[in-house]
């Protein structure tokens, strides 16, 4: 009979209380040891080639003695733990059996025997020991094999001296010092050896020549291009709504807009299909990455959708998606960085390596946030594929800000510029910067029945104020007081509980309205009035399309980055002479009135005149669904920024000049008997070249003559011959980097040619220069396209 004193019994029970958690702790130690085993091998599971199994350990990069030492230490540690646990386990077993005699069979069922714990520990130790032996054998075999291979390839793994690859040796030096700085190098097989550096630099990147002893078949075989497929217009947008996703208020807003305009998109597609006839349209694979909606960029827009925040960007993006889809192209949409990386094929790491596969997209539409994300994660592939990118850029990017070196040297560098893209890759909301491409958006188009209803339902004395945020109304009491004498004023200012104090009591504030209700309000109103902000939004066009007159302020001096905080840092020197220059310059009276709000008499007289004026709903063709489809179709089919430049370099003389002086001797025209420049778009025969007055930008010089500046024609004019044909005396001719060239300087009779093609610019002026300006005609209601551009 065994006796146990009370103190011993208490001590055993205390020990048992601690033993049960300790069993879990030991099992955890075992699991942690196995995890530590994997990581101690130098992270080789992640450093695999694209074709390896996820569980393949590459023996050629295992760290010999270090790995063996770690495995032995782990095995010894587990054996020591097993010995120390043995006595405690026996004590636990005895205690459990003693308790089981009083508790019946339940104790045996509830508590596993301590022997099971010991078996698990011993099994872990044995497994680690077995792994250590196997790894030791593999390492010994690998070292022997590696020494033989090294002897055979020592001469073949030296950086070659090849004038075609001048950066090779420097890149090898960089790899020696920095290859561990990014896991992506190990992902592509770099292991610290000279051979792995050269293989990577010749087969993944392109700084070194191919190694002669490597199998070149896989490297040289580029993937076969997919057969061309004809794009077919779509009228059912239900699949597009699925592609757009959900979960963000901004996406919900965009989907509602797209769904509401489905019928108009379908009708527009039918009209454009009839206009184009049997013209073949290539179907493109297009990625749309809306960078400003990603969490990484802050996504400041989504939370403000329901609080009166700006919706112009989301209106435009919704219409871009609809346009690309209706035109029949393959579409992929991303609003997160993770989705972007997956679709591009970004390797694991910090973004220093190229993509793991050729870019599967013909075009990428994104914004400045998305552009930055792509540059950060695409490595060298960004430079290779950036010609396929189209950047949605509301206010435009002028060439002087786009060219990194020039912007840095001449004070044009901003937070948003210096991308060295072709300026036509930037796509604006309005056609204010001809150096860029005009993307636009759409306004709802009314049918004849709706127009008749509007004519009969207009209130002659009702005004709606342009401004959903209370801050826009601040300090506008004087204007509102004058307007209130003649009209009933309505507002759509967002508020949560209390009426905003900035909105006078005599204003009927509806709060923030859904888009259909806002449209109905505009259809009743006579006047839509702006107070100077926001700039260049879609609302004035929507108001004009619903039969309103738009009244806006004239800015004197004009607003720009020089005098207004809103434009500071934007990559443009453009000056705004009114809140909405497009409405002023391309629509004008009777639909648009631009007056000096500081002149109370002029302001009041304009209100009286507007009340007497009858206007019908008006929508410029380029802002209709059909107009946007037509424009983007032309861009996709004809704009190619990946092709090598065609025109002759600065100062080179063509065998025969394609220009003739116009009969009135004021400008140059493309000669009728001259061959059209192959591949040029717009077609070169639409070119008209003028010498602008000193201090006049080409943008304005062309508009003065009812034409549009066309920057793609600058290379044709960038020669001494063009000046001679215009009878301009050039005593000297020089080529320099300057965004105002080609130009003529009157003092000294000097002619200057452009040295850098990316700096050809319609924008910019100086009183020192007469700029040589390329102009073209345009289609009625579609300034982005010339008469023969379709």
Concise overview:
This protein is α/β, with parallel strands linked by helices and 790 residues long. It has 27 helices and 21 strands. It comes from Panthera leo.
Defining key terms:
single chain, 790 residues, 8-stranded mixed sheet, 7-stranded mixed sheet, 21 strands
Write the layout of secondary structure elements.
Layout lengths: L5 H35 L23 H40 L1 H6 L3 H40 L14 H11 L4 H5 L6 H11 L12 H4 L17 H6 L5 H12 L1 H15 L8 E5 L22 H15 L3 E5 L2 H8 L18 E4 L1 H10 L2 H6 L3 E4 L6 H4 L1 H7 L15 E3 L8 E2 L9 H10 L4 E5 L10 H8 L3 E4 L16 E2 L5 H10 L2 E4 L8 H7 L3 E11 L16 E3 L2 H7 L4 E4 L4 H13 L12 H14 L20 E3 L6 E3 L17 E4 L6 H6 L4 E2 L4 H4 L2 H6 L6 E5 L6 E3 L4 E5 L14 E8 L14
Parallel strand pairs: 1-2, 1-3, 3-4, 4-5, 5-6, 7-8, 7-10, 8-9, 10-11, 11-13, 18-20
Antiparallel strand pairs: 11-12, 14-15, 15-16, 16-21, 17-21, 19-20, 19-21
GO molecular function: alpha-1,6-mannosylglycoprotein 6-beta-N-acetylglucosaminyltransferase activity
Protein name: alpha-1,6-mannosyl-glycoprotein 6-beta-N-acetylglucosaminyltransferase
Main location: Golgi
Can you offer a commentary on this structure?
With 790 residues, the protein is α/β, with parallel strands linked by helices. The protein is built from 27 helices and 21 strands. Strands 14, 15, 16, 17, 18, 19, 20 and 21 form an 8-stranded mixed sheet that branches. Strand 7, helix 19 and strand 8 (488-491) form a beta-alpha-beta unit. Helix 1 runs antiparallel to helix 2, helix 1 runs parallel beside helix 4 and helix 10 (249-260) packs across helix 12 (312-326). The longest helix is centred in the N-terminal third of the chain and has 40 residues, at 64-103. It starts with 5 loop residues before the first helix and ends in a 14-residue tail after the last strand. Its EC number is 2.4.1.155. Residues 184-775 form the Glycosyltransferase family 18 catalytic domain. It is found in: Golgi apparatus membrane. The chain crosses the membrane at residues 21-41. InterPro entries: GT18_cat (IPR026116), MGAT5_Glycosyltransferase (IPR052105).
């Amino acid at each position: 009979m065994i006796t146990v004193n009370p103190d011993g019994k208490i001590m055993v029970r205390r020990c048992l209380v601690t033993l049960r958690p300790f069993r879990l702790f030991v099992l955890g130690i075992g699991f942690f040891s196995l995890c530590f085993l994997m990581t101690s091998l130098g992270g080789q599971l992640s450093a695999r080639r694209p074709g390896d199994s996820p569980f393949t350990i590459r023996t050629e990069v295992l760290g010999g003695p270090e790995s063996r030492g770690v495995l032995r230490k782990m095995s010894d540690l587990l054996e020591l733990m097993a010995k120390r646990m043995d006595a405690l386990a026996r004590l636990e077993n005895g205690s459990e059996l003693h308790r089981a005699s009083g508790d019946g069979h339940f104790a045996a069922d509830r508590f596993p025997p301590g022997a099971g714990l010991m078996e698990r520990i011993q099994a872990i130790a044995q497994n680690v020991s077995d792994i250590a032996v196997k790894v030791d054998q593999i390492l010994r075999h690998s070292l022997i094999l590696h020494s033989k291979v090294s002897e055979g390839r020592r001469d073949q793994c030296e950086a070659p001296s090849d004038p075609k690859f001048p950066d090779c040796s420097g890149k090898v030096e960089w790899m020696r010092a920095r290859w561990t700085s990014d896991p992506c190098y190990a992902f592509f097989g770099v292991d610290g050896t000279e051979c792995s550096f050269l293989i990577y630099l010749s087969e993944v990147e392109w700084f070194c020549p191919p190694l002669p002893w490597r199998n070149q078949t896989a490297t040289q075989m580029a993937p076969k291009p997919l057969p061309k497929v004809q794009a077919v217009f779509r009228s059912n947008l239900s699949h597009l709504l699925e592609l757009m996703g959900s979960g963000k208020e901004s996406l919900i807003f965009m989907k509602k807009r797209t769904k509401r305009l489905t019928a108009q998109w379908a009708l527009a597609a039918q009209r454009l299909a009839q206009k184009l006839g049997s013209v073949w349209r290539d179907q493109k694979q297009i990625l749309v990455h809306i960078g400003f909606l990603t969490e990484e960029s802050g996504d400041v827009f989504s939370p403000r959708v329901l609080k009166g925040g700006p919706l112009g960007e989301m209106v435009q993006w919704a219409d871009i998606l609809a346009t690309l889809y209706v035109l029949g192209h393959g579409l992929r949409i991303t609003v997160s960085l993770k989705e972007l990386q997956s679709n591009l094929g970004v390797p694991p790491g910090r973004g220093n390596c190229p993509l793991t596969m050729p870019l599967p997209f013909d075009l990428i539409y994104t914004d400045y946030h998305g552009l930055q994300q792509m540059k950060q994660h695409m490595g060298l592939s960004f430079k290779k594929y950036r010609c396929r990118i189209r950047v949605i850029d509301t206010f435009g990017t002028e060439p002087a800000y786009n060219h990194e070196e020039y912007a840095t040297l001449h004070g044009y560098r901003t937070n948003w510029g210096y991308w060295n893209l072709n300026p036509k890759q930037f796509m604006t909301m309005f056609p204010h910067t001809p150096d860029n491409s005009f993307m636009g958006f759409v306004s709802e188009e009314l049918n004849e029945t709706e127009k008749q209803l509007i004519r009969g339902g207009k209130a002659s004395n009702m005004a709606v104020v342009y401004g959903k945020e209370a801050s826009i109304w601040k300090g506008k009491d004087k204007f509102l007081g004058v307007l209130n004498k003649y009209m009933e004023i309505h507002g759509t200012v967002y508020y949560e509980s209390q009426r905003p104090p900035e909105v006078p009591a005599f204003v009927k504030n509806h709060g923030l309205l859904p888009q259909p209700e806002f449209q109905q309000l505009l259809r009743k109103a006579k006047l839509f009035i702006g107070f100077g902000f926001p700039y260049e939004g879609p609302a004035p066009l929507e108001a004009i399309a619903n039969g309103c007159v738009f009244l806006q302020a004239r800015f004197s001096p004009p607003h720009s980055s020089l005098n207004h905080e809103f434009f500071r840092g934007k990559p443009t020197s453009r000056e705004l002479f009114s809140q909405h220059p497009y409405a002023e310059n391309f629509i004008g009276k009777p639909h648009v009135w631009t007056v000096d709000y500081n002149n109370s008499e002029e302001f009041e007289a304009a209100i009286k005149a507007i009340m007497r004026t009858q206007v019908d709903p008006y929508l410029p063709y380029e802002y209709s669904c059909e107009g946007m489809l037509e424009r983007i179709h032309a861009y996709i089919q004809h704009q190619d920024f990946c092709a090598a430049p065609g025109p002759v370099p600065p100062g080179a003389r063509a065998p025969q000049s394609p220009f003739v002086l116009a009969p009135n001797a004021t400008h140059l025209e493309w000669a009728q008997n001259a061959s059209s420049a192959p591949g040029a778009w717009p077609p070169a025969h639409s070119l008209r070249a003028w010498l602008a007055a000193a201090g006049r930008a080409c943008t304005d010089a062309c508009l003065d003559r009812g034409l549009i500046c066309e920057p793609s024609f600058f290379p044709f004019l960038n020669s001494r011959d063009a000046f001679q044909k215009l009878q301009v005396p050039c005593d000297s001719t020089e080529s320099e980097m300057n965004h105002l060239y080609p130009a003529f300087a009157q003092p000294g009779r000097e002619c200057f040619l452009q040295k850098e093609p990316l700096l050809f610019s319609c924008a910019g002026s100086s009183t020192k220069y007469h700029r040589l300006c390329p102009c073209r005609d345009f289609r009625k209601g579609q300034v982005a396209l010339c008469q023969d551009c379709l």
